[in-house]
Structures are given as structure tokens and as C-alpha cells.
């Protein structure tokens, strides 16, 4: 396996978000396992941990899914979840559904739960023009 | 019954002939049916590029005479291509070709027997047994190894035709030797053996000269533009090397009947050498060498092959000389002996030797079958695993692929096979295994309050079984382990495992009943608990880098960035032991 360690070309940052099962309302400090589906709409293969850096296999250059709570209107709640690895490299046009563990905010209120992709050590997808998945959630 | 026909005229048939020809074919075909896998093995992947060339409309005929190491395997390539066209390169079809060739070999030997010996047909019985001896399982279960069966078929029929004293038969003998030589280089021994047979059979000087001329021409043609395969090391001509060569040759000679024991291979090899010497002595003493020329030729094929194997393999230890792939050649030593001895039954000496050979064949066959069985199973499992790895090459790290093919080539070839749905990619294996098995870490001990709960989206189209990798405590397990599986919030199956019975890390199977329909994307929950195991006797599971859509907790705490070691449909697809 060649040592990849390559940043995606700019055409590689194109995602289409699919269905999810994030509830519209959750209790405070909820511990949720949710499904997030997305499709690689770019013309590049998104590397998993093995393909990102076959020698070190430490996540470098791998595409990962991250999430973040944002307290409306525009203030981050400061709870960023674990980054989730792809189970395999994702070819152009391929869709994957990931199970993601989400810990809910401690305080009640109206929040946005934002899912975003990144290539580790390279770039967040949204800074390259890709859309994030933003889901409004009421915390009671 | 017909008398011996040393003039080489065609022997009459016997009612037993169909049985003797069909029996080894049937046994070998049965072995292929049970253990044969529609998956290429190592050297066969080299020919993926041949299929690619054909697929792209590029010139490909040059492949036919191209060397394969020191061999040319022309007929094997033709069979591979011809059958591959209709089967999307399923090597099992080639394995059946090998079985059919064994029938052709049996028929050829029958001809030699009936022209040489005035004995009842049933005394031919050891031959079909020897021809399908399971010690040669590697050749039986490896498509490319049709090359060895083409070689031995060519050699046997060369002898058959040489003993028939017509011009047409002589031409046929040259053609048969061409088949043998241009299959594998091992076939080259047919030329000196053929000459010896002509001399023993007291054929004319003109015919002998013609044979020498034909031999020289074919050998010259074979070595035209020949490239010495690297790494080539010249044979050492020292006493030490001579001893090692002799030991390797004896090992090779005895290995068909000695299971996997090198020591017994040497013992049997020595015994066979003595039998050969005594049988030849008997033939000479009774002045039967003219009639027995063909049978002596068969013995020489076996002995000559063992000698060549000794020369070629002595550097690599005796295990190399006992490899399954050589058995197809070395059994000819025993075939020649038993048939020669069948013609010496009028002496007590001959009868005693024949009885000894009969026992050796009978016991050796059983030993070969018993020892080959687990090897054939392991061979099949390895092939199935390689098929899975080729189909999922993108998730496989290099360390998984070292046994599949050259690392520098295997990914490119796998991509070609995937795209063309050829060979191991003809039918998709509906399974998911841990992708990086060497990076496993044990979980914490599974005791009361620290059960493992893994949520996973079903990664296969139809779930048939789940394997859970469990490591018992080093001091020996205590109590029981419970594995429960829910699908879409409904318990579907459970298993209870006695830890005491577990020896080392084990894939514990949990099989779903046939009526259950768990499909790709369904939410599975796998619980691994052990209420009765405590302290040092508690088992552990294994976690691995992410290979699935999974969330695993132990005692409520997340195993961040790790997946529980599970296998999906690993048992149904024969990927796990």
C-alpha cells in the first residue's frame, strides 16, 4: 500500500447529507447514539485511517466526522464530540451510515447540532465550501 | 485376459478397465467438489494480466510460450483461457481438467501393463489408488497445477507410443513428449527414459537414433530464447551436498506414503529404493526387461523425478522435497514396481515383494488421506480468506496480503479482477471481518458490571452468524460467558459458552436460525457478559481499529475509536475455523 499522506484536491470536498435519526428534543446530558448518513459527491476517494497514512495509521489525512453543539443564535456550547472514523475509504458516489455517540448539553435550551467532515491535518470541509449538516434540537 | 504383448500391439480391454480409469477420476473429482475453491492461488494471479490484455484487445498469444519460472505450461494456459472464457476464470474448472487427465494417465498405464504382464486385470488395483492418493492434494486443488498432470500424461503416453512399433505411433510419441516438455520442464526426463525404454525393448537402432534426434530438436526448441530464472545457484559438487541431495531425493520418494513426517518419508524412501533394486533385479534375473520396458520406464519417471527434486530442493531443507506438488511424479516409482512385480509372481521372491508393496500402498494411502484431510480443509479456508481479502482489498493492510500475492502487484491485480468480476471476484462474499487483526487489544476483563454492549449497523446483506473473539484467562477460564444479540430492539439469538472448554483466543459462533431476516443497515446490539466469571478467571474480548459502523461500551464507558472484534457471516462463508 503506497504511503498516501495526501491532502484532498479542492474537488474532493463535496458531501451530500442523507437521512439521520437525531431527535428533535432530548433531555439534558443525554447520551445518544444516532445514525448519520452522507454521500461522497466529490470525484476523489475519501481515505479512511488506513489509507490516510498507511504507515502510522494514526488518523492523519483520514476523512472523519465531527459534531458540535451550537447554542442559538450563534454561540458555541463548547461540547465537541469524538471524531468518528470511516469504516472504509469512501469512493465517489458511495454512501455510508455511521453510528455516532452524542452527549447532549448540560443546560436546557434551543441548540443546533452541527455535523461536519474534515480531513485530519488538512482542512474542515466547510472551509472548502462543503455544507454542514445542521439539526435544531430542543434540550429540556 | 490377454498375454503380454512385448511387440507393442494394442492390448485387449477388460471389464475392469472402465473402473480403473474412472475410479481415480471420480476420487479426485470428489476431492475437488468438496475442497476446491473458486479462488486463484499465488502464481495464478500472474495471469490476471493475460485476461486484462485479452479484455483490452491487446496482443496476447505471446503469453502462450512465455516462461513460468523454468516451465512453459503451454497447455495449462490454454486450458485456463479456454475454460476461463466460459467460467469467468473459475479455477475449479481447471481442477476438474486435472482429474480427467488422471483418467488419461490411468488408461496409458493400463496399456503399458497389459502389453507387459500376463496377469489378471484386477492386479492393476494399486494404480488407480496411487494416481488419486490425497498426498498430492495441492496439485488437485490448485488450478494451475494442471501443468503437472499434462506432464505426467505426456510422459506416460510417450512410453505407450514408443512401445508400439509403427511410424504413426512414433510420431505420436514425439507429440506426447512435446506435451510433457512444454508443460513443465520436469517432462525433460522423458527423453532419456524413452531412450532407455527403446533399448530395453530392443527396438531398432534407426528408431533409437530417430528418438535421440527428436529429443534433441524438442529440447533445443524448448531452450530457444530461454531465460535462466533468478535466483539461480549452481549445484555444489561436494560430499556434503551429495548426501543432502540423496536425502532430499529419498524424502521425495517416500513422502507420498509418510503423511507429513520427514523421518518416515526417508524410511519409506529407503524401503522403496530397496524394492526398486530388488524388482529390477527380479526383472533382469527373469530376462523380462524387453516385456517390462514400459513399466521400468514408469519406475524411472518416479525415480528420475525424485532425483531432480533432490537436486533442485536440497538447499531448502527436506520439507521442501516432501511438498505435496511432487507426489504426482514420485508415485510413479511405486506404480512401476507393483506392476513389474505383478509379472514376477511365479517366484516366492516376487510374491513377497508384491505383498510388501501392496501393504505399503494400502497403509500409505490411508495415512495420506488422514494427514491430507486437515491440510485440504486449511487450504480451502486460506483460499476463501484470500477471496474475501481480494474483494475487500481497499480495507486490507499490507500484512493481510503477504500470503495472497506479491505486495507490489496484488492491489493493482485485485482492482482489475474487481472491475472485470473475474476469478475471486466472480461472486461477492457477504461477510465482514476485522480489517486489521494484528492491531487488536484486549478489553477489560468481562466481569459482573463490565459487560460489553456493542451497537452496530448490520454490515452484511443477510446476517447468518456473528463471531465474537474471546480470550480466556491465562490461568484457565471459570464460569460461563453469555452472548446475546438483538436486532431492531428484539432479541434474536443467544449463546452460552463454558469458559473452561476454551483453549486460547477463540472466535465464538452465534448462529441465527434460518427464518430470521436481519438485513444490511438493521440495528444490532451485541451483549457480551459473564456474571459468573470473576477476577483472574474472567475472559476478555478484543477491540480493533474501526472497521464498521459501531459504538461499543464496556461497563457504560465508550471504547472511543475502537470496535469490538466481531465477524459477520465469517462461519457461514468458511472464513473462520
Quick take:
The complex is a heterodimer of chains A (140) and B (577). Chain A has 140 residues and is mainly β. In chain A, 3% of the residues lie in helices and 46% in strands.
Please give the structural blueprint.
The complex is a heterodimer of chains A (140) and B (577).
Chain A: E1 15-20, E2 25-26, E3 31-40, H1 49-52, E4 63-71, E5 75-80, E6 84-85, E7 95-103, E8 109-119, E9 123-124, E10 133-139
Parallel strand pairs in A: 2-10
Antiparallel strand pairs in A: 1-3, 3-7, 4-5, 4-6, 4-8, 8-9, 8-10
Chain B: H1 17-35, H2 48-55, H3 74-87, H4 91-116, H5 126-131, H6 137-140, H7 146-163, H8 167-181, H9 190-200, H10 205-222, H11 239-254, H12 262-285, H13 293-313, H14 318-321, H15 327-342, H16 348-391, H17 398-401, H18 407-420, E1 441-442, E2 452-457, E3 465-471, E4 480-487, E5 490-498, E6 506-511, E7 523-529, E8 540-545, E9 550-554, E10 557-558, E11 562-564, E12 566-568
Antiparallel strand pairs in B: 1-8, 2-7, 2-9, 3-6, 3-8, 3-12, 4-5, 4-7, 8-11, 9-10
Amino acid at each position: 500500500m503506497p504511503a498516501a499522506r495526501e491532502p484532498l484536491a479542492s474537488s474532493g470536498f463535496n458531501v451530500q447529507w442523507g437521512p439521520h435519526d437525531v431527535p428533535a428534543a432530548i433531555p439534558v446530558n443525554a447520551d445518544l447514539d444516532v445514525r448519520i448518513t452522507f454521500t461522497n459527491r466529490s470525484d476523489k476517494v475519501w481515505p479512511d485511517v488506513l489509507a490516510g497514512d498507511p504507515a502510522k495509521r494514526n488518523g492523519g489525512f483520514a476523512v472523519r466526522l465531527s459534531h458540535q453543539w451550537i447554542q442559538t443564535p450563534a454561540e458555541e456550547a463548547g461540547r465537541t464530540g469524538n471524531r468518528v472514523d470511516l469504516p472504509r475509504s469512501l469512493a465517489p458516489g458511495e454512501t455510508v451510515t455511521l453510528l455516532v455517540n452524542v452527549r447532549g448539553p448540560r443546560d436546557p435550551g434551543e441548540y443546533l447540532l452541527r455535523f461536519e467532515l474534515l480531513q485530519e491535518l488538512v482542512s474542515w470541509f466547510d472551509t472548502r465550501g462543503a455544507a454542514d449538516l445542521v439539526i435544531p434540537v430542543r434540550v429540556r | 485376459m490377454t498375454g503380454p504383448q512385448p511387440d507393442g500391439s494394442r492390448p485387449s480391454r477388460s471389464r475392469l478397465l472402465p473402473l480403473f480409469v474412472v475410479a481415480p477420476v471420480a476420487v479426485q473429482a470428489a476431492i475437488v467438489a468438496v475442497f476446491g475453491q473458486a479462488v486463484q492461488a499465488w502464481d495464478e494471479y500472474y495471469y490476471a494480466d493475460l485476461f486484462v490484455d485479452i479484455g483490452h484487445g491487446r496482443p496476447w498469444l505471446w503469453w502462450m510460450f512465455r516462461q513460468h519460472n523454468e516451465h512453459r505450461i503451454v497447455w495449462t494456459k490454454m486450458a485456463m483461457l479456454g475454460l476461463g472464457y466460459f467460467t469467468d476464470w473459475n479455477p475449479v474448472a481447471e481442477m476438474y481438467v486435472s482429474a480427467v487427465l488422471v483418467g488419461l494417465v490411468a488408461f496409458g498405464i493400463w496399456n503399458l501393463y497389459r502389453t507387459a504382464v500376463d496377469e489378471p486385470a484386477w492386479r492393476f488395483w494399486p494404480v488407480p489408488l496411487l494416481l488419486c492418493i490425497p498426498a498430492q492434494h495441492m496439485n488437485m486443488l490448485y488450478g494451475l497445477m494442471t501443468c503437472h498432470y499434462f506432464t505426467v500424461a505426456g510422459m506416460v503416453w510417450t512410453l505407450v507410443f514408443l512401445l508400439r512399433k509403427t511410424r504413426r505411433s512414433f510420431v505420436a510419441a514425439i507429440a506426447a513428449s512435446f506435451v510433457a516438455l512444454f508443460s513443465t520442464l520436469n517432462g525433460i526426463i522423458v527423453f532419456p527414459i524413452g531412450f532407455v525404454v527403446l533399448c530395453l525393448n530392443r527396438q531398432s537402432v534407426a528408431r533409437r537414433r530417430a528418438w535421440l534426434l527428436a529429443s534433441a530438436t524438442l529440447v533445443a526448441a524448448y531452450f530457444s530464447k530461454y531465460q535462466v530464472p533468478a535466483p539461480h545457484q549452481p549445484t555444489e559438487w561436494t560430499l556434503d551436498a551429495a548426501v543432502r541431495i540423496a536425502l532430499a531425493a529419498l524424502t521425495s520418494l517416500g513422502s507420498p506414503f509418510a503423511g507429513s513426517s520427514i523421518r518416515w518419508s526417508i524410511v519409506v524412501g529407503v524401503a522403496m529404493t530397496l524394492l526398486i533394486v530388488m524388482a529390477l533385479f527380479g526383472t533382469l534375473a527373469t530376462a523380462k526387461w524387453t516385456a517390462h520396458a514400459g513399466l521400468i520406464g514408469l519406475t524411472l519417471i518416479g525415480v528420475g523425478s525424485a532425483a531432480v527434486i533432490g537436486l533442485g530442493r536440497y538447499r531448502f531443507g527436506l520439507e521442501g522435497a516432501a511438498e505435496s506438488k511432487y507426489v504426482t511424479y514420485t508415485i510413479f516409482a511405486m506404480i512401476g514396481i507393483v506392476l513389474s512385480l505383478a509379472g514376477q509372481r511365479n517366484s516366492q521372491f516376487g510374491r513377497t515383494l508384491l505383498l510388501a508393496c501392496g501393504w505399503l500402498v494400502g497403509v500409505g494411502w490411508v495415512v495420506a488421506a488422514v494427514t491430507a484431510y486437515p491440510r485440504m480443509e486449511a487450504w480451502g479456508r486460506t483460499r476463501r480468506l484470500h477471496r474475501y481479502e481480494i474483494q475487500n482489498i481497499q480495507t486490507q493492510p499490507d500484512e493481510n496480503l503477504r500470503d495472497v500475492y506479491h505486495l507490489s502487484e496484488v492491489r493493482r491485480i485485485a482492482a482489475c479482477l474487481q472491475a472485470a468480476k473475474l476469478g475471486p471476484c466472480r461472486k461477492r462474499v457477504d461477510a465482514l471481518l476485522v480489517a486489521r487483526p494484528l492491531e487488536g487489544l484486549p478489553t477489560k476483563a468481562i466481569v459482573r458490571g463490565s459487560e460489553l454492549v456493542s451497537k452496530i449497523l448490520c454490515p452484511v446483506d443477510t446476517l447468518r452468524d456473528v463471531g465474537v473473539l474471546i480470550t480466556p484467562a491465562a490461568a484457565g477460564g471459570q464460569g460461563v460467558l453469555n452472548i446475546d444479540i438483538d436486532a431492531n430492539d428484539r432479541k434474536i439469538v443467544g449463546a452460552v459458552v463454558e469458559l473452561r472448554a476454551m483453549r486460547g483466543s477463540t472466535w465464538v459462533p452465534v448462529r441465527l436460525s434460518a427464518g430470521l431476516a436481519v438485513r444490511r443497515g438493521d440495528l444490532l446490539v451485541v451483549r457480551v457478559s459473564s456474571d459468573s466469571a470473576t477476577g483472574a478467571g474472567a475472559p476478555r474480548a478484543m477491540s480493533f481499529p474501526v472497521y464498521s459502523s459501531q459504538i461499543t461500551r464496556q461497563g457504560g464507558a465508550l471504547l472511543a475509536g475502537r470496535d469490538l472484534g466481531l465477524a459477520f457471516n465469517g462461519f457461514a462463508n468458511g472464513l473462520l475455523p
